[in-house]
Each structure stands twice: as C-alpha cells, then as structure tokens.
Amino acid sequence: MAQVQALIAGTAKHFPNAQFTLGKVAYTTASLTQLLQGLVNAINVVVAAHASVTDALRALAQVDAQVWPVIRLYKRYVLSMFGDATQDLADFGMTPPKQRKPKTGEETAAAAAKAKATREARSTKSAKAKLAIKGDVTGVTITPVTSSQAAAAAATSAPSQTASSTSTAPASALK
Description:
By secondary structure, the protein is mainly alpha-helical.
C-alpha cells in the first residue's frame, strides 16, 4: 500500500497535468490517480475487515472457552437422564453411546498369555521381588527368545478353554 501511495504522490508532483498511454489505454494524471486511489481504498477496507475478523475470532475463542465445558457437562447430564432412549436423545441431537463388545474366553486367555509373556520377556517383577534384587551381577548369559519358543511358552502357561483353541492359535495372536 505504501508503494501505491508513493506512486500517487510522485505522479502529482512530477506529472501534474500529463497524459499517459499504458497498455493501450490512455490515462490523465487525474484518472490514473483515481485508479490508484481506488486500490488504496480497497486495501484499507480489507485491513479494517481483517482487524474486525481478528477481534471477532478473539471474542469467539473467549466464548468457546466458557461454553464448551458447560456443553460437555450438559451432554453427560442428558445421557444420564435418558440413557439409551434413542428418540429422547435425538431431540437433543445426540445418539446413545456404543456399548463395548464383551471379550470372548479366547480373547481373555490370549490377553493373559500375552501379559505373562511380556512380564517374562521384560523380566518385570512384583514390588516385593524388586526389593530382593541387588546389584553387582556378574557372569550373565543372555539367551535370545524366538517367537516359536515364546508362543510355546505362552500356550502352555495360558489357561485353556479347549485343547483345540490353544493349539490352533497363531503365534502372532500372542504378541
């Protein structure tokens, strides 16, 4: 904008009564100045609108910070009042929350086997067992555990529902 204002000032100073042909269009000093001033006015409108939008966004952020915690609490209240009543919740623009799918026996057994294998692989111990551990360990041999050994150890240590459920479980399901 400063550059356009400098063009207007320079034109008025150096070419007060001139005529120009720019891009096959003839301009007088007054018409060129009017054209450039139109650009300055448009830029000023945009700057003012931008300042207005910035102020409006700040105000919106303040209102959001106050209102959204209340909305979350009110939604919880409505859910507690109407539970799974779909039609009543629809009046509030809400749907009942999805129910969790209960785990099957196989999934529970696989989770227990995975947790036990993880504890053994990481050598995690209970709080009392950790108290008994002291430093200065020498002569330790590290033996790598392969996936087939871990699967066999997990399958034998996991409580089995049936003999076929543990023997057919893939090793990747226990990782």
